[in-house]
Amino acid sequence: MQCACGCGAETKLAKATNSQLGHIAGRPLKYLTGHYLRKLKTVVERLNRTTTANEMTACLEWNGASVPKGYGVLWYQGRQTYVHRALWVELRGEIPDGMFICHHCDNPRCVNINHLFVGSPKDNMLDMIQKGRANFRGART
Ligand SMILES: [Zn+2]
Ligand SMILES: [Zn+2]
Asked: Which residues contact 40 (CB under 8 A, 6 or more apart)?
């Protein structure tokens, strides 16, 4: 498998499974050692043109186009996509069908990869209930 950073080199097989890094033992790695950071840097640099770091929360807030709910949008792979989803695909890989990319920080404009997690529609609903947003769907926050 070719390194996902775009350098064109072949990656090695993973020696061990590491769910945090997305490694599966015996399967090719997505990146050569250190290239994940290279990729992260390019994507974040691209985003940095239109993001502001919030020093209080460590959120990386999108200043580009957004939808009424506050989520940033960009043109990605030929279609209008949420910035946080595009970032996830770039850095972590494809999002399983029907899954959401949720915000730990509850800040829809935030595109800090460390504040994002994959959740099922059920997780997303539970998360909203825990945060008291269940009855405020579509409300601006
Ligand atoms: Zn590479
Ligand atoms: Zn955040």
From this structure: 91, 113
Domain 41-130 grouped into CATH 2.60.40: no
The Å distance, Cα 93 to ligand 1 centre, comes to 15
User: What are the sequence ranges of the domains in the chain?
Assistant: 1-39, 41-130
CB-CB contact of 66 with 73 (8 Å): yes
CA atoms within 13 A of residue 59's CA, in its CB half-sphere: 15
- DSSP letters, 77-108, are TTEEEEHHHHHHHHHH-PPPTT-EEEESS--T
Query: How many CB atoms neighbour CB 71 within 10 A?
Result: 19
Distance 43 CA to ligand 1 centre (A): 14
Structure tokens at 98: 């029907």
Distance CA 91, CA 44 (A): 10
Residues 49-91 pLDDT 10s: 778 899 999 999 999 889 999 999 888 777 888 999 988 988 8
C-alpha of residue 120 to centroid of ligand 1, in Å: 31
